[in-house]
Amino acid sequence: MLTTLDIQAPIKMPTGIEGFEHLAMGGLPMGRTTLLVGTSGSGKTIFSAEFLYRGITQYDRTGVFVTLEERPIEIMRNVKRVCWELVELVTSNRLAFVDGSPDPVPTEEVGKYNLEGLITQIRYAVQKVKATLVVIDSIGSLFHQFSDISKVRLEIFRLTEVMRELGVTTLMTAERLDEYGHISRHGVEEFISDNVIVLRNVLAEEKCRRTIQVLKMRGDVHSKGEYPFTISHTGITILPLSAMELTQESSNERIGTGNSDMDTMTNGGIFRDSIFLVSGPTGGGKTLMSAMFAAEGCRAGEHVLLLAYEESREQLLRNASSWGIDFAKWEREGLLRIVCQYPEAMGLEDHLLVIRRAIESFQPRRLIMDSVSAMERVASVRNFREFVIGLTSYMKQARVCSLFTSTTPQLSGGESVTETHISTITDVIVLLRYVEINGILRRGIAVIKMRGSQHDKRIREFTIDGDGMHVGNPFQNVQNIMLGVASVTPIRDADHFDKMFE
Amino acid sequence: MDVDFKFTFLFFGDSTRGDDLKKSLEKLIERAGKICEVEMVDLSIHPEAAAQYRVLAAPMLVRTHPLPIRKVIGYLTDLEQVVLVFGIEFIKFID
User: Fold this and answer.
1) What ipTM was assigned to the predicted interfaces of this complex?
2) Which of B50, B70, B75 is closest, CB to CB, to A117?
3) Chain B residues with a Cβ under 8 Å from any Cβ in chain A
4) How far apart are the C-alpha atoms of A365 and A259, rounded to whole Å?
5) A106-145 pLDDT tens trace
């Protein structure tokens, strides 16, 4: 019998799980059952536990955890590793466990039965703590414990009806065998729920990549894709992708790059909230530009965060001091923080989380990532692009002026793969190149792009000495500096400017 | 006089089938010259007992004495099986 409630779109209940509300348009459907499926180890139990934990501690609700596979003590032990204390919730009567795990006492089936015992235990627990949230983890275990498969299926369905009558919001987990195959193992999804979330744990490029997808959700237009997430000591973090909207306005305030010549080339410095890409071959001057950028910030008393993925802290300090920049001093003063990491150390989603944590705790106004190419080498193309989008979205939101360095594959020029992916996202692009002229290697610099401002369009020569970078005059009569091997010709370089901006 | 077998029968609501079971079980054990006690627990009146005995499927018959504890689930259509599980081996079905 249809009531008006059935026709309206269900109200959503926020879970408190980071990033989930955005993905699921507000949260889980209130008063309904949502099916959470995933292969073994994909994070179903952690997700369910976090749903209860946050619901209880952040939203002042009470809940019941029906555990059908593991014993309650094992669940509590597992989530303790993620730093949640469930015992306290149990003793304060905000969380009740129903132990439906396999009985150690041998039990034989001798006749017809139903699962009224389980249903009664759940109902009793819900009423005891006045629960509004229920987790059932995982229904596959019922198929292992009882041989009457069709009866079990029927009873699971009846269970969802009972949960609905009780008015609770239920999260039911189910196991699957393939990451991209049937929805669940036992074919229950067809009649259990209109709301299905899939967790995946895929091995890609030798790294484990966790994703979450809202497969279907009744009554809603929701994000359809897979979103990467990580599990850390704060729980699950779902990472934003291009769906994330940038709501802040662009800043018109300009800040110094650290080099007055560069400031002139950019018509007064770069904007406060921009993303600044410096691309060049190894040894081309990127590290120097980063150091100058950092120095400018520290001199102004700003916090600067340097993420180093290619060199050690000692090397960075040594390089900087060779140009007269004292990183050690600013570190002591708490203005500069250097974070060194091996790109191979973890997956990109985890790197992103580490970076976000560093930004949240240190509150930098400037950030340097040396280099973004290092990350590209350890991930798939798609993964890398998602990482960059997630990172730059976050930078913009946090209003951090960021400098990314990117290493080009050839000494003389050519486009780096990184640039292909992030050139549309960055606001300022500076190219550094070696130029071979008459048997001498010289250096060229050009501002290729600067959103929202005029800039010097000429390719200029620059030098590096003990005092840093000095930008000089534009190259005359030299072509292909940026695009290939430079050659001197009598043709005016003005005629070739179009090529540069293709 | 010592009791040889103690059972607890956990069921829901309508106890007519339960009473039949109780009678059959008692008869079986009497034939062997043994004495038994059957405790009837209606889970619709005492839901807390379900957790205590770990009742997921109902009805459930538990042998609490002698140890070790053994359980069967389902209405006892297969009494031979029941007999085997509970170790009342010496009962012979003549009729």
Assistant:
1) 0.87
2) B50
3) 10, 12, 43-44, 47-48, 50-51, 54-60, 68-78, 81-82, 85
4) 18
5) 888 888 899 999 999 999 999 999 999 999 998 989 988 9
